[in-house]
Amino acid sequence: MTANASALAMVLEDFSKPLVPTQYPIPEPEPGAVLAQVTAAGICGSDLDITGGLDPRIELPLIVGHEGVGRVIATGGDKRDMFGELLQPGDKIVWHRAVTCGRCYYCAVKRQASLCMYRKVYGITLPCADPPHFNGCYAEVLYVRPQSEILKLPDNVDEAILVSATCSGATAAHAIELADVQIGDTVVVLGPGPLGIYCAAFAMERGASQVITFGTRDDLARMKLAEAFGCTSVNIHAVDAAERKQMVLDMTHGIGPDVVIDAAGTRHTVPEAIDLAARGGTVSVVGVAVPQGETPIAIYEDISLKNLRLQGVWVSDARHMYQAVQLALSGKYPMAEMVTHRLPLQEANEALAALERREGMKIVLTPQ
Ligand SMILES: [Zn+2]
Ligand SMILES: [Zn+2]
Predict the structure, then answer these.
(1) pLDDT tens digits, residue range 88-116?
(2) What is the 42 CA–ligand 1 centroid distance (Å)?
(3) CA of residue 98 to ligand 2 center, whole Å
(4) Do 174 and 150 share a structural domain?
(5) Range of the domain at 27
(6) Which of 47, 111, 165, 224 has the fewest C-beta atoms under 10 angstroms from its C-beta?
């Protein structure tokens, strides 16, 4: 790829309509920016909310895709990664999916860049009508802005395995940090998708004594994978709510789980998460990406009487992406088994349809 050439992107022009293959001119990187060849782009569950028009943040047209891994094509001047390594064309890199300002109240004072007042995200809140156009990962190239942190990767890494680390993995790292999982804790994870699986792995890394995942009858393959990660799994269609609560009580000397991570991404599971949690426990609600409406909570029984901590988790910061990438690279968990489909970029619509049918676990586009 050279300057003045063009590259392919799959563009969302109208909600609930197929993405349109579109050529845009390849931009020159400004100082501090990186023009990256996208070699792997993850299809995220939230991409269905985005393409379906359920995410209120979306402005069209949009190149979908916020999970990406790639290679450096060109840099705007000398550009270094988070370890100070000078980036060269051909280097494999992963970038933080957000563009944050570093100077607002949340960035500078609270050190919670996930709440940055000016936060933008590739493939979500950066439309593509204007140059540099390449603002999403369902494309041959991504224009990585100067504000996005970059990590250089080992050259032998399989990029497809790392796409989950850039979104689900990073958000899971954030959830575990906020839930403050302790050595010996019992952790229940609702929803064994990539987010839930990463939460389970991070909980184990924190020293959880046992991790139990709840899934549905549609999640049998996912639950098998959770077991390969070291979890005990429960099919909620085979065991009713009272029975599964008793199972968890039996596994915790009648106490209940110290931490319940609701990674199902809807409001419907939150009451069960609260009911399961031990007194003094924490319920982490992670992965809710679009408005959900209300959920009943009995303030006295659910919250006060239990000293319950109800912890929301909104996206993640660069350190969480770093942690997730390190976890994936550690080789301790069968992360590769999460990647069930690899499809060419031109098949992005088929990939979204497969996700809608709940096929597989992680679908990855591999633009060439
Ligand atoms: Zn995502
Ligand atoms: Zn900020």
Answers:
(1) 999 999 999 999 999 999 999 999 999 99
(2) 8
(3) 11
(4) no
(5) 6-157+334-365
(6) 111
